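Backbone geometry tokens:
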Amino acid sequence: MTEFPRSLRVADIVASTLHAHRARHAFGVPGGEVVTLIDALQQAGIPFHLARHETSAALMAAGASAISGGPELLVTTVGPGLANAVNGIADAAQEHVPLVVLSGVVDRATRARYTHQVIDHARLLRPLVKASFEIEPESAGATVARALALAMAEPMGPVHLDLSPAVAAMMVADAPIPAPPARFAPLPTSADPAIRLLAERLAGAERPLVIAGLAAARSGAGPALRHLAETLGAPVITTYKAKGLLPEDHPLSLGAAGLSPLADGILLPLVREADLVLCLGYDPIEMRLGWLDFATDPTRLVEVAPVAIDHGMHHAGTQVSGDPAHILEALSGLLPARQSWPGGAPDAARAALRRAFASVADWGPHAIVEHLNAAAGEDGLVTVDSGAHRILLSQKWVAARPLSLLQSAGFCTMNAALPLAIGARVADPARRVFAVMGDGGLEMGIGELATVRDLGLPLTIIVFQDRSLALIAMKQASARLAPAGVALGETDFATIARGFGGDGITVESMDAFRYALEASRHRPGFSLIACRFDASAYDGAF
């Protein structure tokens, strides 16, 4: 129902509406234009967390949203504050994050004459947000509620709200606070013609295969997917964002794909051999260019997703719209258990993947990933930055649960791991969180160590220190070009971490890494472990 308090500031209406719609955390950098808004958020029960850069703040909100499943907030000041956040907002657009961007704006009375820091916020963000509104006193609650509904509608994505200081402080009598409606969606049943058609297609396939993506993970489709895979004997590939949807130690799991040519060389021939490919909550933005035309025969491809996804990477002959988990559950009683894939090609592919990504030395990126995987356990949450280390980790990591490995997979922005980890830990204070970064990524956003310190977060930060932008160097080498702009100097990250109030150590052996990782478990503050090795350790790794 809608509540009608006696009199509130417009900023209070905005904040109370956000809270009513499940927003619980705000991240950003304050400015004079948003001080009233920040005060209102705090009073409404939405704490404001100070970041050191607006793009990092947007990624922190994304990390919190991955845990809460709801909208989270980015607060920026006018002009340069919002412009600084563009990378993070673009990431939210391509990663389908329901990010609410709240920006201050110069008061309307002076905007036409006053040019200092004034830019057209809505026009700047037009390619990146689902909608942009300026909040007015008479319709503040309704505008915020509308923006939230758009952010949470599939495919989810960011929305933008401008609020001027004068409007934020204005008092409104009998101001409504719109609550979210009670939403009901009829569930599909085994009698639904679309479900029966899908069951017939799956039952008639001798070599069925599933490719699952983020929307399937968000819908909680894991148990139903496991039942389907075991019933049909169908192997399952996921995107990096959906790792663990089927536990990756399961014999039908082929792990994740997305950026590794080595993995593609094993998985794509198997996909092309399948006579039915079920794309479950799969968005091709989560894959690499090699998957552009993996299905040459559209009749073999069936898409199941909450809404039809806008892309041109392949053409599916059949599309079923709906919640992936509910659709699989409706299928469960219609498919008899049977064997598929005569000849055992999926088992051979799984063995080939194990060999391809096996550790090659006692120390180096492979060994670091393996030990961290064991130390994190099933309940740990890991975030990983873009770079060579991300590709290797995403292929080697054995995920037992979905949404336990967070990364920027569609936009692939650098410096994502630390802010994602901050947001996730703020949203779930009981969970152990690890941020895995390259030295280039950490140097890009090293100021956020101050955010970790000020928030008192016991994060464990693992730095793969190869003194190189290794992935770009590998691409230069493959193109037979001389290296240029990829060498990094020697940064003493351990000393910097101590300067920011955490614990820092540099390690160059597995024994030292094991000790440092175990010691970090018991510290009240953050720990940074800089793992030094040569970039040549990535040669042929993925």
The chain has a mean pLDDT of 95. The longest strand covers residues 99-104. The domain at 7-173 is CATH 3.40.50.970 (Rossmann fold).
